[in-house]
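Following the same procedure, the fold was encoded as tokens, giving this record:
***
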Amino acid sequence: MSARTYVCRLDELDPERGVPALAGGQQVAVFRLADDRVLAVQQRDPYSGANVLSRGIVGSVGERPAIASPMYKQVWDLVTGECLDPAGKEPIPLTAYPVERMGDEVWVLTP
């Protein structure tokens, strides 16, 4: 069973920036892309252990939206959580969370 948590209104999210949120007891990083898609991944950087991914650099790897950690610069796919560049370490994926938009509202689903 999933928990659905209201995060904010879409217009409260700046494009290409992340915000931290608490969804279903999980710390998540929520990102609004330039095309208005909203994606969410875990907030905890698995390499540093710090809850900082919402402060990461949003970009892309080819056509894949991505986030680079502000700590050690590992890069992940924002849709799948796949580690695209482990910066010389073993790849560790992120948990990616489904996001629902209901009108102007942004909701994150967590297990």
